[in-house]
Amino acid sequence: MILTLLLLQGPVLAPAEPEHSLFPLQGEKTIQVGGRLMLDFGFPSGDSDFAAGTEVRRGRFRMFGDLATNVAYKLEYDWASGEAVLKDGYLKLSDLGPGNLTVGHQFEPIGLETQTSSLYITFLERSSLSEVLTPGRNTGIQYSDGTEHLTWSGGWFRETDGSGASPDESSAFTGRVVYRPWFQDGGKSLLHLGAAVSVRDVDQDGMGVRYRQRPEYHLGDRLVNTDFIMADGVTLAVFEAGWQEGPMHAQLEYAQAEVDGAGDPGFSGWSAQFGYFLTGESRGYKTSSATWQRVKPMSNALDGGMGAWEVAARISNLDLTESANVADEMETMSVALNWYLNPYTRMMLNYIMSEVGAVEDDIIALRFSFDW
What we know:
By secondary structure, the protein is mostly beta strands. It contains 3 helices and 21 strands.
C-alpha cells in the first residue's frame, strides 16, 4: 500500500541547494565552494625575442560562507605555479559599528583595477601601474563601509609572501575613499571618483624595495627593473576615476611612489581605457567595495543567444627612470575583443604593443576563462 501511494505521488524532489553550495551546516553556518581557471596562449614578435607559450595563468579553488549572522569567511589558493599560493584567507565581521571589520590575508584598499577581481578586468593583465606601484594582498586588519554614493576603507597591513607569512617587519597603513556623484540603474549609469594613500615602513634588515614590470603580458620578461633600493619607507598615492553609461565604460588611474631611501627617487604611472559592449550590456559594479563586477550577457551563447561582445582599448605609461638602472619609460597600448559566452565563461583576445626606448614588441594573446 505504501509503495503504491509513493508511485502514484511521483518522484520526491530534494530541496534546491544554494548556488555553489557544498552542503549546509547546522544553524547559520554554510560552506560554499568555487574556483576559476584561466588558460593563456601568447604569440609575441619584436625586439625582445619573447618565446611563444602557453600557461595556466590562474587555477584557483576557494571555500567561503558564513559562520553565523554577520560573520563570513573566505579561503582561496592558487595552484597555477604548481604549489599552493595563498590568495584570500580572512574573517569578515559585518555591521560592527558603522562598518565592517576584515581580518586576515586580503587586498589592501588601494587602486580601482587592483581591487577589481581578475575575473572582471577588461584586459588579460592589469595595467603596469597596478601591477608595479600598488600593493596586492597582504595580511592585516581592515575597516570599511559603503553606501550608494560613498565607499571608504582603511587598515594596517604586514608585507607577506605566498604562504601568508611575513618575511620581515615591513608594514603599511593604507586607506581609500571613493565618491560617486551619481549612481543610477544599479550602476549602469555612474561616475566613480577615488583616491588612496599608503604609508609604508620598510624593514631595515630587508633587501629594500624593487619595481619591475613586463609589457602587460605575463609570459614575457620584465623589461624595466630598478633592482633593489635601500629604503626606510615609501609613500604611495593613487587617483582613480571610473565612468559608465549603458554599454560604454571608461577608467583612468594615476599612481605616484615616493621612496625615502638612496637618492629619494620618485616613480609614477598612469593608464586610461575605454570599452564598449556591442551587444548592449554593462559592467557590474559593487558599491560596498567600489569595484567592477561580473558582466551578465542578455542572452547566453550556444543556448539560442550570442552572449556579450565587448571591444576595448587601453594606453598606459610607467616611469621608473629616476632609478639608475632604468633609462626609458615603458609605454604600452592594448586593444581587446572579449566574448562572454555566459556570466561564467569568457574568451579574450588582446593585441599588445609595448615600447621601452628603442625596444618595441607586438604580442597577440588569447585567454579561455571560466569560474564556478
